[in-house]
Design a protein that fits this description.
Jelly Rolls; 5-stranded antiparallel beta sheet; 1 helix; about 200 residues; elongated; mainly beta
Length: about 200
């Protein structure tokens, strides 16, 4: 907290390379919670590294016999409304898979990762799906904080179908994402298996 009758708050940061920068912009009380605030300066690279650059890649396996990633930083399920996901081992393509009941208008789920990433890191999103009955449909969209790729609609049948979503087509010009979002366009029970990103 800083004094309400003062100029506001200033930030002083120390980089991992030892550079200390006091930011010129002042954070005042009239800037609302959750707003973006330009600090007015940035670090310089004190020790540039030549050669290859290390890039962050999230786990490419979103759900393949379990949620991808390592303990404490795995992909996670976040359903809403009447969507009811469970992990099952019977009737899957192989190993375990996801059964999501209660999908329909206003119901769906995100499978999300804590760290956002550029969709340009991957070439495609691949997965298998089926439903208990024909005549239903669902949409798959890659989303992030303020970012949303173009939705793709699928019509599942009682037998497994394999799909590929080309990220360069559906996410052209889209910023960082961190979720595979599924909406039920019609009431259905959906099964998903081998949900993974393919690297370029």
């Amino acid at each position: 907290m800083f004094a309400s009758d003062g100029e506001g708050g200033r930030f002083r940061f120390t980089s991992a390379q030892g550079e200390i920068v006091e930011m010129p912009s002042v954070l005042t009380y009239d800037i609302a919670k959750g707003s973006f605030f330009d600090l007015g300066a940035q670090f310089t690279n004190q020790n540039p590294v030549a050669g290859d650059v290390c890039h962050f890649f999230p786990p490419a396996d979103v759900y393949v016999d379990g949620y991808g990633g390592i303990d404490q930083v795995r992909w996670m399920m976040n359903p809403w409304s009447s969507a009811s996901p469970t992990e099952i081992t019977s009737g899957c393509v192989a190993g375990s898979c996801l059964r999501i009941g209660g999908l329909g208008s206003g119901a769906g789920f995100h499978i999300y990762y804590r760290q956002s990433f550029s969709p340009t890191l991957f070439a495609s999103l691949n997965f298998s799906h089926k439903s208990d009955a024909s005549g239903s449909s669902f949409q798959v969209t890659l989303t992030g904080d303020g970012a949303e790729c173009t939705s793709t609609t699928f019509s599942p049948s009682p037998t497994w179908s394999q799909e590929t979503i080309n990220l360069s087509s559906v996410c052209s010009g889209v910023g960082p994402i961190n979720s595979v979002t599924v909406y039920g366009s019609t009431p259905l029970v959906l099964y998903l298996d081998n949900l993974r990103f393919a690297q370029r």
